Amino acid sequence: MDVGTALIAQSHRVDLSPTTAIVWALWLLVGFAGIFPGIVAYMVWLERKVAARFQDRIGPNRVGPFGLLQPIADAIKLIVKESIVPRPADGLVHLLAPVIVLASAFLTLAVVPFAVGLVPIDPPSGLVYLIAVSSLSPLGIFLAGWSSRNKYSLIGAMRAVAQLVSYEIPQVLATIPVVLWAGSLSLVSIFDHQAKFGWNAFTPPGLLAFAIFLIAGVAEVNRTPFDIPEAESEIIAGYHTEYSGMRFGLFFLAEYLGVFAISCVATVLFLGGGMPLPFSSFPVNLIDGSVGSYILADAILLAVFLAKVLLFIFAMFWVRATLPRMRIDRLMNFAWKYLVPLCVLNILFAAAWFEVVVRPGRIEAGRWAVGMIGVGLLTAAGVQLVFWANRKLAAAAPIDADWPAGGAARGG
Amino acid sequence: MVAHNYVFVGLLLLVAVGFALAPLALVALVAPRKRSPTKADVFECGVRTHGETWVRFRIQYYIYAIMFVVFDVETVFLYPWAAAYGSLGTFALVEMTVFLALLFAGLAYAWAKGVLRWA
Prior knowledge:
The complex is a heterodimer of chains A (412) and B (119). By secondary structure, chain A is mainly alpha-helical. Chain A contains 15 helices and no strands. Chain A has two domains: 51 residues, no CATH class; 241 residues, no CATH class. About 2% of the residues of chain A have low confidence. Helices cover 66% and strands 0% of the residues of chain B. Chain B has a single domain, classed as Up-down Bundle (Methane Monooxygenase Hydroxylase, Chain G, domain 1), CATH 1.20.58. At the A-B interface, helix 2, helix 4, helix 5, helix 7 and helix 8 of A face helix 1, helix 2 and helix 3 of B.
């Protein structure tokens, strides 16, 4: 069937039965317009609390008990603030940029399976959809920096696009092993595969892919140590220098929504979604067709899923409180010279793991042990090879040779 | 639920845009609007901005964008291969190894040419 016929066949499947309409309405109005922004608002509160503890402060504690009403106070403050648009700016694009960034973050969450059956949509090409909508955000960020007509904004936007496109490659390539093992691009199939074969992070190529995905993920949401696009000590606030009031608030919301989304995706792809045990399909195998068993299993899955997501979010806050910002040349080097070659090699290791362990259709102890040791050694050798080659090449041509005193002043 | 997935995506897009525009509309109603020439200036650490902002920018960024396109197209080929790998057999692996090797040669060429040097 060619693409055109397939598309027509797809479009005839539109069937808005009352049940579907209700489920969708619940997802859109309660989930996307209610719960997710709520989670994000409290992530901001949590980050302020966590960052405060790391710096031996108390953090927000004035508005409500433990400062719990702080997000509401912040929202009111943002709404009553004047939105200042600079005179030479491109008004329409200036308005649209934060909307695009926020929409991109929202759309990403549409394919995340939170528990069995608890997924807004499950298109067969889920992962491609995910990559496609998440790469809309660099567009919004660039429009923001360009339309502001401020030099700092422009530099920030240029840096942002360079960084985001560079880290998108390793992030996308790191998901290839997962797709290869599950034999599908659907996130639900990837979850099902892990119920059978254990979490993807508990395989040697999976662990490497997981590490790369996390690093690239942190870079994709512009967080420390990859926050060069909004490096406040150099370029004011980067692409959102000229944004104030609620328009800035939208960027802020989008950034935290992005952190939440990337944590969800990492949990589904590498940490077995909501399954509490690495090598057991525990709550999924409880489902015996009765409604009670389904609710019980989903309650466990959802609770564990959110706990894992919270762990990721906390790790990102921790990293932010600990590490300084990377220099841009090292940042780009790291993406192209370390992560991309590692990802390419890792695809071959993933194929080896598939042949040894996944091919029989279920885990066999002997083959699994051979895979863990054999593919594990192979993967470790691959990592060593890439780092060794980079050390050799860097010794031949040190990157600092191009950075004499005042080098940074030449821009970039 | 055999409804079309992308109808949901369309609806979600509407919700997301609405969610972004609603507070902006509220701001237009509630927030003060006091224009002044100084306030509407672009922010520049207290001095007047000098020269045109929309200028031609460093070529380095453009080169990275080209590299991105090359590798992003690669992933479009890799996804279907990865999804179908289980039923394709060993020959598919050999083919993909050749493909990856060619791409890697491209990366190595760019690397040797100094494209990946941020200077």
